[in-house]
Amino acid sequence: MARADLTGIGEIQALLGTTSQFEGKLTFEGRVRVDGKFRGEIFSDDVLVLGEHAEIHAAIDVGTLIMRGGTLHGDVRAKELVELYAPAKVFGNIEAPQLFLDKGVVFEGKCSMPG
Question: Which of 12, 32, 65, 68 would you call most buried, defined as having the most Cβ atoms within 10 angstroms of its Cβ?
Answer without folding.
Answer: 65
